[in-house]
């Protein structure tokens, strides 16, 4: 019948989104406040429920009296009882506002005691009113008085149960919404942490190469590598750690990264791209594939005097896109061991996929037909990552 304005929870984001997507209401709906979620205005919700409940009580009691052909003064009697019940439940609401924060056992005991006292007061007023307006001189005692107290206790207990039910539901909804926000923030924070692991690892290798070029007095190559590093960092810093990019954008970033690495390995590094047109719009976390390329360079290109080829392919497979990073280097077995690493690299990519897609992805490694190592990633073709 009622809920207290101080206890109704704030409108959660899910409800705000539902409100934003809901169709616009007409002027009549706006006038009576039906163009917004009912509990968005806590004060309005309380008074609407409180007033509607006791108006319904008054009408039912009045109609019952008319059906039993009671005197016209019964309406005055019923009006007095309605005002009494309305006032008593306001006092109960003020008390329950404090009791609801206590331990459950204390809340139940004190609430029952309050309902008992309120029903006693309600019955005294009802008995007096009945003897004054309906049947002058009547003095209910014994079973009649106990019956009146019992009925009023049941009425106020039902009001109290509805009050607590509504408020506990809203408190639970608020806690669930808060937990959802915290889980989303934790997921975003972990994605950011995983992403931030990439740049220091890559920077160490690149700056070490630039330092070597400077020591060898190859200033032009050092300047060119610095310029390409600057472009790469400009891109990575422009995107949030949790940003989502299209596969086309990710491939362009990989090409920028490979231009830097080719300054180190020259013709020993031979990258190849085969990206199907249907897959270029698939969205994935920024720099997801960069550790896979870095792993291929480390285990296929670096150990070999002749270098190695690296293939990046993307093909549609049903509702998913299959991305494979493969090489033909001789370090395939070493790379398989690297998948168990807890540092950056393949383990980082696996963790980012789990954070971004949950169960909606596949991550696999294998020795390929060229004698090298392949990493296979499958992600939803149309769906965006979680969060």
Secondary structure layout plus pairing:
Elements: H1 13-21, H2 27-31, H3 42-67, H4 74-99, H5 104-134, H6 143-196, H7 198-215, H8 219-238, E1 244-246, H9 247-265, E2 269-275, E3 283-285, H10 290-301, E4 308-317, E5 320-327, H11 332-338, H12 346-357, E6 362-367, E7 373-380
Parallel strand pairs: 2-4
Antiparallel strand pairs: 1-3, 4-5, 5-7, 6-7
Helix pairs in contact: 3-4, 4-5, 4-6, 5-6, 6-12, 7-8, 8-9
Task: Tell me what you see in this structure.
The chain has twelve helices and seven strands. With 387 residues, the protein is an alpha+beta fold. The chain starts with 12 loop residues before the first helix and ends in a 7-residue tail after the last strand. Strands 2-4-5-7-6 form a five-stranded mixed β-sheet.
